[in-house]
Amino acid sequence: MASTARKRFGNRGLVATGAELLEPAAPWLDRTFSSEVTKSLLAPWALHNGLGPDDAASAFITKVIGAAVAFGGMPVPVGGGIKLVEALIGIIKDAGGELLTSADVIKVTTSNGKATGVKLADGREFSATRSVLASVTPQALYQGLLSEEKIPTEITKSADSFRYGRAAIQIHLALSEPPQWKADSRLKDVAIVHILDGMNSLSESVNASNRGWLAKRPTIVVGQPTTVDPSRAPAGTSILWIQLQENPRKILGDLAGEINPGDGSWNEERLNKYADRVLAQVAEQIPNLFNAITAKIVLGPEQIEAMNKNLVGGDPYAGDCRVDQYAPWRPLSAATGHRTPIKNLWHIGASTHPGPGLGGGSGFLVAKRLTQKSFLERIRNR
């Protein structure tokens, strides 16, 4: 986009494009739309990239996600998300690879400044014939896997200051019947519905979370997988997943004045009380919700981190996605891209460029580079 603007409009166009890219969603929505409903329809999408409506670049992210949904829809693997995992495992095995689970890597082994393999917690070691790819956070890489290596000071300091964003909460529900939406029955056919009181409540919830407070009326993401994949639930029944993206990693207070923050942890009592608040808000829009629930699982920030060490404090994006930790500054201002000070060791994952997402962008970029023929190889093949 920037190069196109420069070619068409010169340096002034480039500067204007930069300003457009950095605009927050809230002023763009206020300037572009008069309907509060339309603003509320679009504003929450930036949350799916870790941004609030008042954050820099959230307007651009809102446009990108909105366009992607409009043109590409919301494709899901038939049979559940596990099918995507199984497909990727199949690709690895078909290529002669092997996937090890429950194998905790504690060290990247090196020799003469080059990565040579990895060492596991159980003592096993695996050698790399070409490269090692580490899909971890900057702290896990430089303070853990490479803790015995001599890393430039500017990189270790930059890794120390790497920030994590708001925590996530996930609620999974099994329903004895499809949800009956009060506002419009057609909502039952929408894959993802956002429930919020409006733009101001969205801003309030994000700002409260950033300062450690629980939202009084949070923005709620309601996923309805059976609308696009009926095989996920028996005929006549349904499932919902509910995602909350405006939660503090440590609780300092509650805007509703109902939950005592205590030591700030997401213990079972606080988590369930907050989940009850959320479900009551959902039930305002789905009146048959409580009578239809047959099973419920609530995953808080601590459970989410336990499932994936990269999601520190329950941050689903493995690092704050605000502009100073994004694009050319991700993962670190002192170590952009995917190369590391250790030759043949590549840093990938949501903590790196181009950020979080099921597309696996960082791994794709590194794989493309590793499989690209060298200049000499291209000459020999002519």
Automatic annotation (TrEMBL):
<dbReference type="InterPro" id="IPR036188">
    <property type="entry name" value="FAD/NAD-bd_sf"/>
</dbReference>
<protein>
    <submittedName>
        <fullName>Unannotated protein</fullName>
    </submittedName>
</protein>
